[in-house]
Amino acid sequence: MAGLVAARELARQGLAVTVLEATDAFGGCVARHEVAGLMLDAGAESFATRSPIVAELAAELGLGERIAAPNPVGAWLQLPESAQPMPSTGILGIPADPAAPDIVKAIGRRASLRAAADKVLPLGTLLRKEQLSLGELVRARMGSAVLDRLVAPVAAGVYSADPDALDVDSVVPGLRAAVTKHGSLAAAVGALRQAAPAGSAVAGIAGGIGLLVERLVQDLKDRGVKLVAGAPVTGLERADGGWQVRSAAGDFDAAGLVVATDGGSAVRLLAASIPGLAAAEPAPGPAVALVTLVVDMPELDAAPRGTGLLVAPGVVGVRAKALTHATAKWPWLAAEAGPGNHVLRLSYGRAVGAGDGAEREDFTAWPDDKLYGQALADASVLLGLPIGADDVLGRKVVRWVGALPSATLGHRARVAEVRRLASGQHGLQLAGAWLAGTGLVAVIGDARQRARLLAEDLGAGTRPEEHSAAADTP
Ligand SMILES: Cc1cc2nc3c(=O)[nH]c(=O)nc-3n(C[C@H](O)[C@H](O)[C@H](O)COP(=O)(O)OP(=O)(O)OC[C@H]3O[C@@H](n4cnc5c(N)ncnc54)[C@H](O)[C@@H]3O)c2cc1C
C-alpha cells in the first residue's frame, strides 16, 4: 500500500513512475481471495477512522459510497473461564474507567480497586525511562489483571505480540506525555479517546478493503505509471546522481526512489549505500496464519459472540488468538453470503513474554489440513456450538510471514535513526509500516508525505489542480 500510494502521489506531481513488486500481486497485506464463491479480504479488512485519510483515498478512487460501518454489536473477549462482551476500554484494552461495571466483570472487584489506584499513585521515574514497554506501564499503574485480561488479548490481536515486548511510544504515540500531563494512565487514556472522532473506531469497504488495491492499480495505469509484478529488487546502487535499480525484471535507472518494502529488505538493499544503516535492521516481525471458513450454519445468524472474539492468553484448548465473525461484522458480507451462510476468520501466531524468555508461537509451518482441524475445534469452543467438516462450504489458509513489522522495545529509536540516516540521501525516501507504524492510516499518510518530499527533492512542481487535495492530508 505504501508503494502504490507513493507512486500515485509522484505521478500526480508529474513524474514518470515505475513500481517494482516482488510477488505476482500488488497490494502486499491488502489482498482479496475467493472462498466458496465469495470475494473476501485475505489481509487487512478494516481501517481506523481516527483520521480521514483512508476514507479520502477511497473517495478519490470512487469507493466513497462503499465505505461501511461495522455492526455496532461489538466484539467479545474470551477469558480463561468464560466469554463476555468486550468491555468498552479506551486504548489497546487499557480502561479509562477501571471501576466501570464491564471492566469489573472482566477483571474482578479486587483487580478493579487495584487498577483505580492508578489515579493516586505517584508517577515516580517510570515515565522517564528511555525504553518503556506497554506491559510495564500498564502493570505499574493498573496491575497485572488489567494487563493479562484486557491489554494482552488486544495487543495479540493487533500486533501478535506480548505487551511486555511492545514499545509504548511506537504503539500509542503520545500516551507517555499524556500520562505526565494528566497524572494517571486512566485519565490519559480518557483524554486521548475524547480527542478521537465519535462513532465507530473502524470502517470497512463493501466488497472488501482489497478493492482499494484494485482501484489504485487501475488509477496508476490510467496515470501512465508502469507496474511490474514478479520483479523483486535485488540491488540498489548510486549512479550519476540517481540510482541504478537491479531487479528480476531487468535494470532501471531512476532519478529518485521510494523504497516501500518491509524493513529487513529495505535495510539490506540500502546498507551498502548508507553507512550505518545495517545496524538499524529490524528483527523480523511476527508470522501469522489466517484460516477462513465459510460455513452453512443458520445457528450463527444470531451472532452469538458479536463480531468475533479476542482470546486472552491462558485459555486452555484454544490456540487461535482471535476469531472474526465476518458476516456478523459486515452487513454487506452477510447480504452477499446469503441466509444461514457465515464467514469465520481465525488468526494464529503470537509472541508470549518478552526478551530472551519470549516464546513465539508460529503456526505458518503447519500444513493446511492441521490448521483447518484446529480452526474447526477453536471455532466450536469460541462460538459455543459444534462446527464440523460437514458444515464447511469453503476454506482457505493464508500465511503472512514477515508482513507485520516489529514494534518491539527500541523500535521508535530505530525508526528515528533510520530517518536520520536516510534524510541525508538525495533522491531517496523510505516508506512502509516498519517506519510509519502498523495499519493503513499510518502507512497511507506517511507514504503520501514521503512521496511529496521526494518530488520536492527532485524539483517536481505541485500541479495546481491537485493542490487542494494534497493540502488536506495530515
Ligand atoms: C493479516 C493482517 C491483517 C491486517 N489487518 C489490518 C486491518 O484490518 N486494518 C489495518 O489498518 N491494517 C491491518 N493490517 C496492517 C496493514 O495491512 C499493513 O500495516 C499495511 O498494509 C502495510 O503496508 P506496507 O506497504 O507498509 O507493507 P506491505 O503490505 O508488506 O508491502 C510491502 C511490499 O513490498 C514488496 N517487496 C518486499 N521486498 C521486495 C523487493 N525486494 N522488491 C520488490 N518488492 C518487494 C512485498 O512483496 C509487498 O508487496 C493487517 C496486516 C496483516 C498482515
From TrEMBL:
Residues in Amine oxidase domain copies: 1-456
Domain of life: Bacteria
InterPro entries tied to this protein: Amino_oxidase, FAD/NAD-bd_sf, Protoporphyrinogen_oxidase, Zeta_carotene_desat/Oxidored
GO molecular function: oxygen-dependent protoporphyrinogen oxidase activity
Pathway per the UniProt entry: Porphyrin-containing compound metabolism; protoheme biosynthesis
Keywords: Cytoplasm, FAD, Flavoprotein, Heme biosynthesis, Oxidoreductase
EC number of the protein: 1.3.3.15
Function: Involved in coproporphyrin-dependent heme b biosynthesis. Catalyzes the oxidation of coproporphyrinogen III to coproporphyrin III.
Organism, scientific name: Arthrobacter hankyongi
Main subcellular location: cytoplasm
Similarity comment: Belongs to the protoporphyrinogen/coproporphyrinogen oxidase family. Coproporphyrinogen III oxidase subfamily.
PANTHER family in the cross-refs: PROTOPORPHYRINOGEN OXIDASE (PTHR42923:SF3)
Coiled-coil parts of chain: none
NCBIfam families for this protein: proto_IX_ox (TIGR00562)
Keyword Oxidoreductase among record annotations: yes
Subcellular compartments: Cytoplasm
Protein name: Coproporphyrinogen III oxidase
Encoding gene (name): hemG
Catalytic activity: coproporphyrinogen III + 3 O2 = coproporphyrin III + 3 H2O2
Cofactor: FAD
